[in-house]
Amino acid sequence: MDVGTRLKDVRKQQGLSQRELAKRAGVTNSTISLIEQNRVSPSVSSLKKVLDGIPMSLQEFFTLDVPERRQYFYCADEQPDLGHSNIALKVVGYNYPNRTLSVLHEIYPPGSDTGEDMLVHEGQEGGVIIQGELELTVADETRVLVKGDGYFFDSSLPHRFRNPGVVDCVVVSANNPPSL
C-alpha cells in the first residue's frame, strides 16, 4: 500500500490541510509532507501519532474505503527529488496508479557525475537537454550534448551522465519501465 498517498487522500477527505493535521498531531508540517511524498516511511508509532490528529485508528486508516483519486497535474513541490549527491532527479507523476513510465526533471550542477560505475537497468530511456551541456556515455560512445540535443537508448547498455560545463545542465527525460 502507498501509505503517503493514502494519508494525503484521507487528510483531504477529512478536510484538513497539512498544517492543520501537523498541529493536531504535534508534528512538523514537513513531517506530514515527507510522508505524503513517500520520501520517508513512518514507523507504526509515528503513523499512529499522525492519525491521532485526524482522529483515526490504524485499523480505520488501512481499511477505510477511500475513492481512488487520479492526479494529472504536478506542481514543482509535488515532484519528489529521488536524486543522489547533488544531482536532482525530480519525478513527475510518482503516485500515478500502475505507472509504466518515469518522467524526470533532472538537474546536474557543474562537475556532477552519476559515478565511475556505469548505470545499467531494464528498458529504454530518452531525453532532451534544456540548458547547459551533458556528457553522455552509452556503451563505448561518448558525446557532449547541448541545449536542444536529445538522446535515446536501451538502458541495458552501460551508461553514464556528467556535466562538464560551468552552468547547471537541465534535462527532461523519460524511461520505461520506470526506474524511479
Task: Describe the structure in your own words.
The chain is α+β, with helices and mostly antiparallel strands and 180 residues long. The protein is built from five helices and eight strands, in the order H-H-H-H-H-E-E-E-E-E-E-E-E. It has helices at residues 3-13, 18-25, 29-36, 44-52, 58-63, and strands at 88-92, 102-108, 124-131, 133-138, 141-146, 150-154, 159-162, 169-176. A five-stranded antiparallel sheet has the order 1-2-8-3-6, with no helix packed on it. A three-stranded antiparallel sheet has the order 5-4-7, with no helix packed on it. Helix 2 crosses helix 3 and helix 2 crosses helix 4. The longest helix has 11 residues, at 3-13. It is elongated and about 55 Å long. It starts with a helix and ends with a strand.
Supply database-style keywords.
five-stranded antiparallel sheet; three-stranded antiparallel sheet; 8 strands; 27% strand
Question: Topology of this protein?
Answer:
Layout: H1 3-13, H2 18-25, H3 29-36, H4 44-52, H5 58-63, E1 88-92, E2 102-108, E3 124-131, E4 133-138, E5 141-146, E6 150-154, E7 159-162, E8 169-176
Antiparallel strand pairs: 1-2, 2-8, 3-6, 3-8, 4-5, 4-7
Helix pairs in contact: 2-3, 2-4
